[in-house]
Amino acid sequence: AQSVTQLGSHVSVSEGALVLLRCNYSSSVPPYLFWYVQYPNQGLQLLLKYTSAATLVKGINGFEAEFKKSETSFHLTKPSAHMSDAAEYFCAVSLSQGGKLIFGQGTELSVKP
Amino acid sequence: EPEVTQTPSHQVTQMGQEVILRCVPISNHLYFYWYRQILGQKVEFLVSFYNNEISEKSEIFDDQFSVERPDGSNFTLKIRSTKLEDSAMYFCASSDYGESNSLSTDTQYFGPGTRLTVL
Fold first, then answer.
1. HEC states along B10-41?
2. Contact at CB, A42 and B112, closer than 8 angstroms
3. Contacts of A50 in chain B (CB under 8 A)
4. Which of A27, A51, B3, B69 sits at a 20 to 30 Å CA gap from A67?
5. What is the mean pLDDT of chain B?
6. What are B41-95's pLDDT values in tens digits?
7. What are phi and psi of B53, to 5 degrees?
8. Which of A97, A107, A108 to mutate to probe the B interface, most B CBs <10 Å?
């Protein structure tokens, strides 16, 4: 069965610093991988997705993620954090297009001035 | 930009009561989903719905739960007899489906959620 593990329930960075949010997955077939962001009192918004095209995926707001099959990872990065990036970030996997999403437990990102 | 909407934003009910959570998916989407997040836990899949029938459901989605698309625009989740452990944030999502790798195709768009509190 597929699963997702996000290392670190809470990550704190300084404004301008590199953001790295870790995600490892387990899947019996080539997965579809997603990162969603949730701002306070809002729904989940898609940041980016991997669907077996390029392994380096660029998303919205300057975020990107790299699919590494050998490491079963899909870590999310942003070169320079902004105060507005403070939110909860969820990694998710699906076995098929349109299939159910299996989520990680989420990582809360704090950005210090 | 089209978005998924959900009502109410917060519902408080007594244990044993029926609740109906409502969602209006994005208008041209054909796939609909319900997820829930118990406080402090992961977002969990409940059910997916396509072509007026359930396409997949989780073990959480037992006989107490049902879904319906009553009028071609709304998508509802009914809990017949609520339990304390049903207290959670419930998210509705919708998606289209296609072969394109564009960000919007085959992306599940989520609503803001309904917080259900069972007393």
1. EEEECCCCCEEEEEECCCCCCEEEEEEECCCC
2. yes
3. none
4. B3
5. 90
6. 889 999 999 888 999 999 999 999 999 998 878 999 999 999 999 999 999 999 9
7. -150, 160
8. A97
Contact B56 A100 (CB under 8 A): yes
Question: Averaged over A68-97, what is the pLDDT?
Answer: 93
Cα A113 to Cα B9: distance, rounded to the nearest angstrom: 32
Nearest by CB: B110 against A43, A49, A60:
A43
Does A105 contact B at CB distance below 8 Å?
yes
Q: How far is CA A87 from CA A10, A17, A43, A46, A77, in A?
A: 10, 16, 11, 13, 14
Q: Which of B42, B44, B107 sits opposite A46 (nearest CB)?
A: B107
**Does the structure show a pLDDT above 80 at B104?**
no
